[in-house]
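Journal club prep — side note

Before the paper discussion, L.F. wants everyone to see what a predicted structure for a comparable chain looks like in token form. Sequence:
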Amino acid sequence: MKRKRLDRDIGWGFQGFPYYQFRLESGEFRGLCCLIDQKSGKTQRWSFEKAGEAPVAGGGMKWLQLLPDGKNRLITAMFLPNGRLSVCYVDVIERVEFDPDGVAAYVDKYLDVVFTPQGDCGLFDRDELDEALDSQDVTKAQYDGAISEAESILSELCGDIPKTVKRLESVFRAALERISLGEEPLKTKYQ
């Protein structure tokens, strides 16, 4: 299993972005909330059947990352500069940890669910999870837990995508309001 930091300091090409991390308790969400405000960077797109070429990163976009209490998932909602959701990427995770600088990190359990507001929805990297079981990188209990969490994500988040989009947009607005009221970024300067 791979360990990844939520400030996404490697691999995405963000430049000079603030990273916020705080606990959020709103009507729609309870848990750790992280926001990456992408001030600059080349637009990156993923192709979908229904959504077409959807932006996932780039100048003006914001990533809302949510670690809900009691769940083994990281929800990354990728918002366009106009505040509309473009793509949602949900990692199935083993656990959350914190680095000495305070940045949250997660241990990835291979499976991912990706969906768009237009109705695209898919489960990805099942082959990687199967290989991890074969190589004993995960136990049978961890494997079963990953499958169960992915099924729960598909049911809870993709069963009614328009409702999920409204919930994520509401949480996004709550996070932006918290930041507008003076929440300081955990990190501000990146190369």
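L.F.'s comment for the group: The first helix runs from residue 126 to 134. Keep this in mind when we get to the figures.
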